[in-house]
Design brief:
The chain is an alpha/beta fold. The protein has helices spanning 18-38, 74-81, 102-113, 148-158, 165-171; strands at residues 64-68, 92-94, 97-98, 137-141, 178-181. It is elongated. The protein starts with 17 loop residues before the first helix and ends in a 9-residue tail after the last strand.
């Protein structure tokens, strides 16, 4: 004979939502901080438009980024008034800070480029035992800034003017992979 089951009344269970809400808020904060950290090297710029622009193929974690800002823009004028920017210094930002002079830029580029110096398959040796950097450099320049600053950055990536060849090569960042950021012009259907 079959046994009768006892009737178990439904309990009104209350779930404490506090830990779940805490976890959700922690996740929101985590993703906000991570998003901010990935953008730390990018200054607000109005990039020049180029007809033949191609989309960036993705974030290269080893790419070196230099921003050339327009000091006279409204946003940067507020930064000048607050003392964050100095209009007497070059308008070049690296790692979120304005450089003091171009020699400081060269030293910074040299430090950033150095870890990836090793022989490549093409044997592109600049001098005995001296190899060019494999890290690319992304130059982001505001459309309101003169191109001369981009030229200066390009020059300081290669050789040191006025030095003997041996000391010139020792001081040079030797960065030959250069990318210039531009914006695509708006399409006709927009």
């Amino acid at each position: 004979m079959a046994k009768k089951r006892k009737f178990v009344p439904d309990y009104d269970l209350e779930i404490n939502m506090t830990p779940m809400i805490d976890v959700v808020f922690n996740l929101i904060i985590f993703f906000m901080v991570i998003t901010d950290l990935t953008q730390k090297d990018l200054e607000y710029l109005i990039l020049p438009k180029a007809e033949k622009a191609v989309p960036d193929e993705g974030e290269d974690t080893e790419r070196i980024i230099i921003n050339i800002i327009n000091i006279s823009s409204v946003n940067n004028q507020m930064r000048v008034k607050s003392g964050e920017l100095d209009p007497a210094l070059p308008p070049i930002m690296v790692g979120g800070k304005q450089i003091k002079n171009l020699d400081q830029l060269r030293a910074w580029l040299r430090r950033k480029a150095d870890p990836r110096r090793y022989p490549d398959k093409d044997k592109n040796q600049v001098a005995p035992g001296l190899w060019p950097s494999r890290k690319p450099l992304l130059v982001r320049c505001d459309q309101g800034q003169i191109f001369g600053w981009v030229q200066a950055v390009m020059q300081y990536c290669t050789f040191v003017p006025g030095q003997k060849r041996e000391s010139e090569l020792a001081l040079s960042p030797m960065i030959y992979k250069l990318e210039i950021a531009v914006a695509e012009p708006p399409s006709d259907d927009q």
